[in-house]
Amino acid sequence: MAKIKHNNFIDTVDTVFTSAKDQGMLHLYTEGEYLNGRTIKINGYEMLHFGTTGYLGLEQDERLKEAAINAIRNYGTQFPLSKTYLSHPLYAELESKIEQMYDIPPIITKNSTLGHMAIIPTLIRDEDAVILDHQAHWSVQNACQVLKLRGIPVEMVRHNNLEMLEDKIRMFSGKSGKIWYMADGVYSMYGDYAPVQDLLKLAQKYPQFHLYFDDVHGMSWKGQNGTGFIFDAIETLEENVVVVSTLSKTFGASGATFFCSDRKLREKIKTFGGPLTFSAQLEPASVAAAIASCNIHLSAEIYELQAQLSKKIAHFSTLLSKSSLPLVSENDSPVFFIGMGTPATAYNFTKRLFAEGFYLNLGIYPAVPIKNTGIRITISAHNKIEDISELARAMDHHFQKVVEETGSSDEKIRQAFRMDIRRKLPAKKQQIALLHIEEQTTIMNIDKQEWNKYLGTHNILDWDGMNYLEQTFSGNEDSASKLDFFYYIIRYQNMQVVLMTFCTFGIWKDDMLSTESVSRHLEEIRKTEPMYMTSKVLSTGSLFTEGMHCYIDQGHPLAEQSFRMLLNKMEETYSSLGADMVVLRDFETGFKWDEMVRNQGYFRIDMPESCVIENKNWPTIENYGSLLSTRSRKHYNREILPYEKFYDVEIKDCLNQEEINRAYKLYCNVKDRNLAINTFTYNRQVFEKMNSSPNWEFIILTLKNAVEKNFIGIMFCYKNSGNVYVPELIGMDYIVGEGFNLYRQLLYQTIKRARELQIGRIDFGISASFEKKKLGASIITKVAYVQAKDNYAMEMMQTLQNETNTAR
């Protein structure tokens, strides 16, 4: 089975975070001998703090500080013993105070992350099922991975998508016990809410349906006794609802709390809940601070604090409503997210505000989709009204400047976040339009000689090859194989070609570059749902081609501007087509404008390696082994040459109908077996068009002494005007060919044929690079740049990858 190098999700995240760190946005340190909540010092500069999650400012309350100090004096810095054995003297008082707040006994955990790890595996039974909102906090999603080891199904739905959620509930209804939906009460990035009332209605409709809420961002600033957004929304905690809240963030101390109305379940979790048993307990100082905070929450003071914060939130909301700033979610939470669209715009904006003396948070991938990069601002009790007014003024002042400097627009940003377009600003007029872009939807409208000059010497990309692709895929009856074509030529002063490329629009499988185990899992589902986990993609090139899909005259002074023009045009096309994803394919590692592309809202992924043999002066075939390394030559002499005698080799320009049937069957054998690059299976039309095209030929291998004389191997090869020989597809009979090194022999016969035709380059494709390297292929590393409407598909692939890894 062909092996490829798969992209690593962690590498992608690391690239994004490293870029933000290099821009001075992440991994910063505060300075100074004390903190006051209102201001912080970074790199020697005093800044107003709009990035805290301590919304009521209780972490700076003197009563909490004194309580913590006294606890350290009385009980030490920690009580180093598992709470299962013995709790330190302050725990009982804290539990009592929290029970007074909620009218429900709590379970107290070290923090919410460990809380989820303790609660979820105990709460969820083997017969249950779990559905995750794809924006549920990482700590919840991570805890759910443990469930997969027990065979518990864990599915994911798009954020707050009730229709998709109900479909999943119906799917599990007949075969699962309880169906748990995991969601945040208040989401930490956009500050939007879970649709609690709609979820409660679903719970009434489906008795199996249960709700698990992480409400750490809804705590204290909302609800009776500051018990949070969820308790304020549900009023009564029924048996089908459980809530995790916090003693940190707004509460001002440390730790987390869990609430459920089922006493037996509560005791079971408390008796043995993973980290509850084996982790250290909260330090005396944290418990004492939490008790002091409980006293505030149990007094009328909490409502005064809530009202004061609410006034500041309303003031900021009013100022934003009068500004041009794209506020992503309008609500009354203390979390605000201003859409920037691209990382470049967000970096520029953040730097300007830092320089003005305002600290706020950058919201980047994977917390949000790469094209939904933005600025998260949090309002707290520490912020003064005049601070908030100054922040709003500075943001409004810099926004349009930033947008213009980074080549964005208010319209683009709002479009990226699916917001209403307020107004479309006129494009800036240029005195001289030095660059002009031509658009076509067919190669027939493009000069053959000019096309071949810039792109025609690569892969199947000569004019005739493009004509074949259009004839084959434009009108394809199979929706999975149908492609729309878009050609873009950017000229300098309407003459000189600075950039030339083509794009296709079609359906891709979301797991195309995932591991085989993930694809195998999804293919089982696709037996009944063929379009499950697929996306509409606008991509440079096509999945049928590889290599240099975009010619750029990199020495031209306007080369970068032309590439930006292409990105803008593709973005327009992407939006008009309603695509889910845009992909820039097959750029070699170290691409000149890598940073620029990523700053425009793309993340970089590693692509499978390309395999190429180049030899302008072929030796005699008898001397071919002399070109190989010592190790590869041994392989060549042992695994290649001795097996050639078993085969009859035939080169055909055209196949009869029986041969086409056989060829298609052998192709399907390989396609069904190889999930390393999981694309849709091509239909017969692709092969019928090959058969009628003069540029295609077929290398056919038949065993000499076989009882049946059917060929058992075939290579479908394209001859690109003497420039490139492209073994595009392969077909094999694995059973009959076993023991005869059929695959290796097909590779070798391809090399012999290219030499015979005196074609100096073979594009050997992107799989089985180890085998091809042994025959003299060079390996070319490549990257792609991806932009998606949301992170749902990518998070699903990562979840499935974790699931298949744990199942091994």
What kind of oligomer do you see? single chain
> Strand count, sense and closure of the main sheet?
8 strands, mixed
CATH architecture annotation name of the largest domain: 3-Layer(aba) Sandwich
- In whole angstroms, the N-to-C terminal distance is 19 Å
The best one-word shape is globular
Give me the secondary-structure topology.
Blueprint: H1 9-22, E1 30-31, E2 39-42, E3 45-49, H2 62-75, H3 91-102, E4 107-109, H4 112-123, E5 129-133, H5 138-148, E6 154-157, H6 162-173, E7 179-184, H7 196-205, E8 209-214, H8 229-234, E9 241-246, E10 256-259, H9 263-271, H10 275-278, H11 284-297, H12 301-321, E11 335-341, H13 343-356, E12 358-359, E13 361-363, E14 373-378, H14 385-405, H15 410-416, E15 435-440, H16 448-454, H17 463-474, E16 484-492, E17 496-509, H18 516-526, E18 534-540, E19 550-552, H19 559-577, E20 581-588, H20 594-599, E21 603-606, E22 610-614, H21 630-644, E23 647-652, H22 657-673, H23 684-691, E24 696-703, E25 713-720, E26 724-732, H24 742-757, E27 761-763, H25 769-774, E28 778-780, E29 782-788, H26 792-807
Parallel strand pairs: 3-12, 5-6, 5-7, 7-8, 8-9, 18-20
Antiparallel strand pairs: 1-2, 2-3, 4-10, 9-10, 11-14, 13-14, 15-16, 16-17, 17-18, 17-19, 20-29, 21-29, 22-27, 22-28, 23-24, 24-25, 25-26
Helix pairs in contact: 2-11, 3-11, 4-5, 12-14, 13-14, 17-23
InterPro entries: Acyl_CoA_acyltransferase (IPR016181), Aminotransferase_I/II_large (IPR004839), AON_synthase_class-II (IPR050087), BioF2-like_GNAT_dom (IPR038740), PyrdxlP-dep_Trfase (IPR015424), PyrdxlP-dep_Trfase_major (IPR015421), PyrdxlP-dep_Trfase_small (IPR015422)
Domain BioF2-like acetyltransferase: 631-772
Protein name: Aminotransferase class I/II
